[in-house]
Structures are given as structure tokens and as C-alpha cells.
Amino acid sequence: MRNNSITPQEIEIFLDKTLFNIEKPGRYTGGEYNQVIKEWPSTSVKTVLAFPDVYEIGFSNLGLNILYDQVNRVSDLLAERCFSVWDDMEMSMRNSNIPLFSLESKHPVFDFDVVGISLPYETLYTNTLNLLDLSGIPLYHKDRSDSDPLIVAGGHATFNPTPMSAFMDAFVIGDGEHIFLQILEIVKERLSRQKILEKLSCIEGIYIPALYDVQKFFSSSSNAAVPPIRKNIVTHLPPAPEKLLVPNIETTHNRIAVEVMRGCSHGCRFCQAGFITRPVRERPMQEILESLRTTLKLTGYDEISLLSLSISDYSAVQNLVFNISSEFKGINVNLSLPSLRVESFSEELMHAINQRKGNFTLAPESASELMRRSINKPISDENLLETASLIFQKGWTSLKLYFLIGLPGETLDDVFQIVDLCRRVKAVGKKLVGGRVRISLSINTFIPKCHTPFQWVLMDSIENITQKHKLLREELRNTGIILSFPSLESSLLEGWLSRGDENIADVIYSAWKKGAKFDAWQDRLDLDIWKAAFSKQGIDPYFYSHRERPLDENLPWDFIDTGVSKTYLREEYLKSKAGSLTSDCRNNCQVCGIQSSYDVLCRDLVGK
Amino acid sequence: MNGFEKRLRIFYSKQSSIRFTSILDVQKIWERAFRRAGITLSYSQGFHPQAKIQQASPLPLGFCGDEEVMDVWIETKNEDSVRIDLINPYLPVGMVTQQIEPIDLSAPSLQQFVDFSDYSIIFLDSLSQSALSSLVESIQISESILFVKHSGKQYDLKPLIRSISSQDNSKKGPSLYVSLSSAPGATGRPDHLLQYFHHDPSHVLITRKMIHFLKYD
Q1: Residue of B202, B203, B204, B205 for testing the chain A interface, max A β-carbons within 10 Å
Q2: What ipTM does the predicted assembly reach?
Q3: pLDDT, tens digit, for every residue of A527-536?
Q4: Which of A173, A130, A132 lies closest to A149 in space, CA to CA?
Q5: Where are the domains of chain A?
Q6: CB–CB of A297 and B124 under 8 A?
């Protein structure tokens, strides 16, 4: 039973008497430098931004930080934060009938007008239900009334919203910056829940499960009857948040992360982010530098990270890196770069980085010619070895390599070529830096994601994946190369959930009921619970993951329009089967549909 | 280094919810606060340079501190002293600098002179004065107070107690005052004392009022 009369003061008292015995109590206190606390009674619309995993994981989430900044810039709106709580805290809260609360003002989540949930990946679904339940909010949207907050979700996982559509009042598909403020403005009008939803449903990029007839979309012959939900885009990246929160405890990313570029023009066929975040938008270099200067002063951080899907494609990457290195090195600030594409790597860029700290990460993804053509990421071994050699020559000693296994048509020989390539990279390193060389190999299992050219293909079989893992382990034994890969279980679950339809909702619910939680934590995931939940609903999970879908099948996410046409994805899929490549569209438009969908010229959105 | 090095002794308080931030994280908080304040910390030499900050005696997680002490080494270009008001605006809620003293660079390290600490323990749930008195008495008459730490190591708290008394503060409720040795290798913790006598340390508010140092020349 929800205790509607509980006050923030009572929650504070509970915390005072509880946290001493709780693991990592700093997760639950708030009070970070730069936190925003507004006058509760005089702020007209209140939103709590939720990340359904523990504080340390969610703290640095880019989307959450952008929205926190944007909302709090508006005088009569406020945004606070909440995260999933660990088991010990949950038990204490449930025993004392304390609902989930915000870190800033300690108000119960149900006191807010809007709960904005970040869903970057699917393994957060059970945590999302648990978060709502611990907040005392009905899980299914149909059970909520005018006195409940509006539950809104956004993030990459919502590009297939169907598995979670029974639980959410609204989804923001695509860029959330402006649209989230629009939602809050509508909520400000204090209409009934029904009226609010009706108004929201008129905004491009918002999907309201209670009002959108998915069946009708699929049954109607033309898009005119029930138009698809088209993702929202911002044509220019809004200013990066500068007054970033600084945690009082260790979090996963203790640094300034500035988004340099959104979108990617390469079209690697496995990469969902690359397709759903089109078109490419660059933040001008001067704006980045200005923002970094301010943010460093306001936060005191000593590390900068440049965020983008493919940093080396940023038009002024060398200048940017050079300027950052020369301007901030004197004040002991480190620069960390995300994984780099091999082919766009250059000696000039290496020179500009001008520091020897940390890892270098390269993402070749595959090691055989056949696979490289299939996924449209053509690099040559020579190119990779030259790059590695350059990295070691410049003084770095550790190199991390990202690869995928389980790609369509992949054989054991293709996987063996990964081993072979890594050994060659290691040999190059050994020659140049001797025994200090450190190669780590991070292997991911390919999961065919929606809105990519591979959305029709099936996941590799359990037997094959197991065999490939075994090959990697055996062949790399005693080589000194550090190997890591996700468990088979977590890949399977991600496959089932990301490719699921509306029938999955009850599976998620019953898995949560049976105790599934923190599924993104490999040591916490219990696939047997999930298998039982599927079987309880009479559903075969492999129907979603291990079945090649015919090209004319209606896919559960077809009513979401990313701006990239299905025809284009189909062509890309067929090209992949034929082993033919599609070049980077930055200089040579491939007519994916994004320009006509949004009436933009991609070349206008990137730097000169 | 362009300027010269200075060593400062900083007295600060740590109150309210930031008491749930561990000493390692407090170190990071100071580093960032100095950066925000535009004060350059000195760093140790070597492959992993560390900011030169030395806490006198680490405050356990969950304890408040009225007067914590640390030494920091900074780089400066001029003789101006670092003032409290140059640092305080850059600290998170709950941490306040009380005093800053310049210290001779060659002065010995703080830790080796830590002697004992005074703690106040406020009972958040009402505890009768008589119950409190009998707790004090039990502590006083015990010949030894053997406590087993998380690590499995057992230690005797009794010889580490310098003084103990109770007070019924009408505003805050009944409180216990205890002074325990904080010397290196002989540190007694008030929460262990409570646990030994079956009081849940989560139902009290422990504040270290002061750290006492041995005199040195």
C-alpha cells in the first residue's frame, strides 16, 4: 500500500537511521556539488529523471545529464534524480514502507508530475518495473489514474518500444532535448491524464501506447490511415551541459564527457546506434573548447572524454585534439578517446594527442575479408598492424581491440582469423615495447538489432557461440592476450527482449515477479527465471532470436520510423549477402532516406 | 614547477549526509574543490602522480567530524595566504573549512602524532537516562571489551578508552561522550563499543569532536 502522506522529512529520518548499515550509502544521499534544488511549492512542474540501475552506473548517463541541465534552466520547472537501489537498501525500504525518493529533495517519486526513465539497453526492463513498484506507482499504464505521475521513457532501447509499451504512458523516440520540455509544458496545463496523453500524441516523436493503434497501422494499406511514429531530431546539438554534477563517491565515469558529434555516416550494418542516430550533427570546435573551459572550472574534474560514435570522423578532429592537449595539459587534465576506427587513424592525430596515458582502443570488429564486407566495415590487416605499430612507436603499451562474433555466415575459420590477427598485433607490440605490451581482446556477441540492415537475420546458434568461445579461449591460452566476452545468457536475453513484440510485456512482468532484477549484471542474471517466464506465457523465446524473418514480414518495430527507409535497409541487407560494400555517405549520399524525411541536407549539419 | 611549494594545515568539518562518503572519496572531493578554487595542488613524482594531501586520522564512514585535520601541499607563485573564503564556496554541502595554518615544509607528518579522539554519540531513538547510565557503568566495570572486526581480527577496546561519560542534553536527547585512542596501531572505534553492548550503531549519530595530537618539537 502506498503511504501517500509520507514527507521528505520522514524519509530523511529513515535514511539517518538506516544508511550506517547499508553498503555504499553514498548512493542514496545526493548532495553532490552542482546539484540543483529548487523551491518545491513554487515550481509548477516537477520531474524526476530515473536511471534504472545503481547510482554509480546511472550517474554519468549523458541523456540524464542533458535533461537535468535543460529542465533546470527553466525557472518554473524542476528536475531531480533517482536510481535503482541495491538489495540491502530495497529490503530496508520495503520493511519500513518507504517509497523510492529523489536524491535532491527526498520527495517520494509519486509526488512528481513526470518520471522520465532512461532506457539505453533492454536488460534494464525488470529494474524499471521494480523502480516503479518501489515508488508505489501502478506498473501497467492502464491502471494509473490522474493522481499518478506520467511515466515517460526514452533512449536507444525504445526504438523497439513494444515490449515495454504496456508499462509506459509515453515514449520519446529519438532526440529528447526539446521534446521533453514540450511534455512538461503540456503537463503544466493541469489537464486530465487522458487529455494530456491526447495532446502529447500530436507531437512528432512521441508514442502513446494507449492511443496509438499498432494493429491498424499494420492492417492499413497506406501510411495515411495510421501514420508511423517518426523519431524526433534536433538539427543542431543543444549546448552541452556545463554545470555537471560532481559525485561524492566513485562512479563508473569520473570525468567530463562532451558530445562532439551525434550520428555516424559509415553504415556498419550491425550497428544500431549508427542507423538510429542519423543524420550526423557536429558540435563546432570553438563551442566544444569554450564548453570544456567552463566545465573544467565548474566541476574540478581532471579528465575529459570526447563522446561520439566515431570520433576520428569529426571534421576538425586533429585540431580539436591538438587544442585540447595543448590548452589543458598544463593543468594536469587528461584526455580520453572512445574507440577509434582503424582506417581514419593518422600519425597527425597521434601526435596531437600528445600524452601516453591509458589504453588505446580500436574497433576492427572482424578479422576476415568475408565478414568485413558483410558488415560493411572494410579495413585491411596491414592497416590495423600499421596503426598498432604507430601506437606502440609513440609510447603506448596497452591496446584494446573490439571484435564481434556470431555474425551472419561466420565460420570457425573467421573466428580463428581474429586469434591470428591479435597474435600479430601482439608481436608488433612486443617488437616495439618489449615485455610491457598488453593486448586485451573484447569480444561481443552479435545481436541483430531493429532498424539495421541485419534486422531480419537470426542470432548465431548456442552451439556455434559456445564453440567459438571455446576456440578463442583455447587458442589464446598462454599468449598473454587478455580475453573478455559477455556470457551467452546475457546475449540471449538481449536478443529476446530487443526483438520482442507486445507479448513480451507479460513475460517481463512475470520474470520480475519471480525475482529477475539487475539483468545487466552478469553475476545477477538468472536466465532460468526468464525461460520459466516465457514458458508461463506459452512463448518460445527463440522465435524472436533464432529465426530468419522473411523480408515481407511485419516487424514489431515497423511503426517506428527512424527516417532511414525500410527499403534502404533491405537493399543493404541484400548487399551484405552479396558481400558488396557501401561507402561512407559523408561525401557521397547513399539516399538512406534521412534527408527527405527531415527535409535537411546532411552536409549542412556537419562542420566545414 | 613555476612557483614554490607551500604546506597548509586545514581544519574542516564534515556533517550531514556527506558523512556517508568514505575517506578515499573525501580525498577526491578535496582535489576537485581545490581545482575549482583555482588552487594548484602539488603532486607526487612517479608514474602515477598523486595529489599531496595527508589526512591526520581517517574518519570512519558514517561519522560526522567537527574538526578534521589534514595537510595539503600547494604550488603558488606568491606569498599570499590561502583564505577560507577562497575554498568554502567550492566544497559540497556538509563540508566547511574552519581554519588554515601555514606549516613548515619539513614538519613531521601529522599521522605519527595523532593521540586520541573525542566522540559524542547521540541516540536517535529515545534511550532513558538510566539505561544510558547503566551502559556507561557496564563499560567502566568491564575488564576487557573484546571486539571482532570484519576482518576477523579481535581487539580489546578497554585499554583504548581514555574517558567516558553520559549527559542528558534536553535538546538532543541522551548522549554519550567517549575519548578513544587514535594512535597508529591502537585505534578504538566508538561504533564497535556500542555493538559490543548490543546497541545498533545505525541508531546513533556519532561525531568526532576533536583529534588530540602529541606535542612535538
Answers
A1: B202
A2: 0.94
A3: 999 999 999 9
A4: A132
A5: 8-230, 255-352+566-608
A6: no
The residue ranges of every structural domain in chain B are 4-107, 112-213
Backbone φ and ψ of B34, nearest 5°: -65, -40
Which residue in the set A25, A33, A250 is minimally distant from B20, CB to CB? A25
Q: Which of 1.10.150.390, 3.30.70.580, 2.30.180.10, 3.40.640.10 is the CATH number of B4-107?
A: 3.30.70.580
Torsion angles phi and psi, residue A331, rounded to 5:
-105, 30
Q: Per-residue pLDDT tens for A54-97? A: 999 999 999 999 999 999 999 999 999 999 999 999 999 999 99
Identify whether the C-beta of residue A345 lies closer than 8 Å to the C-beta of residue A387.
yes
For domain A8-230, give the CATH number: 3.40.50.280
Instruction: For residue A25, give how far its alpha carbon lies from the nearest alpha carbon of chain B (Å).
Output: 6
pLDDT classification of A356: cutoffs 50, 70, 90? low
Q: What is the pLDDT of residues B47-61, one digit of tens each?
A: 778 899 999 999 999
CA-nearest residue to A15 within chain B is: B17
Q: What is the pLDDT of residue A166?
A: 98
pLDDT band at A1 (very low <50, low <70, confident <90, very high): low
User: What is the CATH code for A255-352+566-608?
Assistant: 3.30.750.210
Cβ–Cβ contact A607 with B under 8 A: no
A302 touches chain B (CB under 8 A): yes
Whole-prediction pTM value? 0.95
Partner-chain contact A17 B94, CB within 8 Å = no
CATH class of B112-213: alpha beta
What residue has cell string 575529459?
Answer: A304
Output the average pLDDT for chain A.
94
Does residue A334 belong to the interface with chain B, where contact is any CB pair within 8 Å?
Answer: no
What spatial distance separates the first Cα and last Cα of chain B, rounded to whole Å? Answer: 30
Determine, for residues A33 and B205 on separate chains, whether the beta-carbon distance falls below 8 Å: no
Please classify residue A521 by burial: count the beta carbons closer than 10 Å to its beta carbon, then call 0-12 exposed, 13-18 middle and 19+ buried. Answer: middle
| Owner of C-alpha cell 536507444 | A156
d(CA A443, CA B202): 44
In this model, does residue A223 exceed pLDDT 70? no
